[in-house]
Design goal:
globular, Rossmann fold, 225 residues
């Protein structure tokens, strides 16, 4: 069984590809076989990142490949424990076409209203195509401080949305790590690595729980007397 996690957003620059590569690194650390699918042919952000990882000799090696469609990625990752889909920076029919194969959808957002509003609309649209709310969550990124992050978390949770544990603050050390082919959990500052790892372990736990439950055979219904 391959657990499938899709990272999406309606906007670019909110942390989608950043979190996708971090999930891959953390999942690899806990012993999972991971395939990362870069599905944005115009940007190929993750393909550039994995080349930087090779250039700077960063271990472990992460399996990243570019695909034109999610279906191609699903076929290629059949022997993996986890498939990470880095979707293009827009909502399209691609996500609804493979929704039954996706176990969890993660959408990063900053505390900015300009990011929050379209992000909420995305999840509302996915619910309308029968994707359960409990199979989706937000991740707080680019926050300027814990107080701002907590206010955003309270706002989203008050509307019934799940929010991953941990917050990715706006820090130069994160950007420097990414430029060197590292993930958010691989900076030179342990105090920054911890919240990134906590967030990704939370996501991994949620995704594996959904994947495992969806793989269980349906129990036969008891006949009414």
């Amino acid at each position: 069984m391959t657990a499938v996690v899709a990272f999406l957003s309606q906007k670019g620059g909110v942390g989608k590809s950043t979190l996708a590569r971090t999930l891959a690194v953390v999942a690899n650390e806990v012993g999972l076989r991971v395939t990362v699918a870069d599905l944005d042919p115009q940007q190929r952000t993750l393909m550039r990142w994995v080349r930087a990882r090779e250039q700077y000799g960063v271990d472990p090696v992460i399996n990243v490949a570019g695909f034109d469609t999610p279906q191609d990625a699903l076929r290629a990752a059949q022997d993996s424990d986890l498939l990470v889909l880095d979707m293009p920076g827009r909502l399209s029919d691609a996500i609804t076409g493979i929704s039954r194969h996706i176990h969890f959808i993660l959408q990063p957002t900053s505390p900015s209203v300009d990011d929050l509003h379209p992000s909420i609309l995305v999840f509302q649209a996915l619910q309308r195509v029968q994707i359960p709310r409990e199979h989706m969550a937000f991740a707080l990124c680019r926050a300027l401080g814990d107080k701002e992050a907590e206010a955003t978390r309270d706002y989203l949770e008050a509307q019934g949305h799940a929010v991953l544990r941990g917050t990715i603050l706006e820090r130069l050390a994160y950007r420097n790590a990414l430029n060197l082919g590292r993930a958010l959990s691989e900076t030179r500052q342990p105090s920054l690595n911890t919240p990134a790892r906590v967030m990704m372990l939370d996501l991994l736990d949620r995704a594996l729980t959904v994947a495992t439950s969806s793989n269980q055979p349906e129990r036969p219904r008891r006949k009414r007397a």
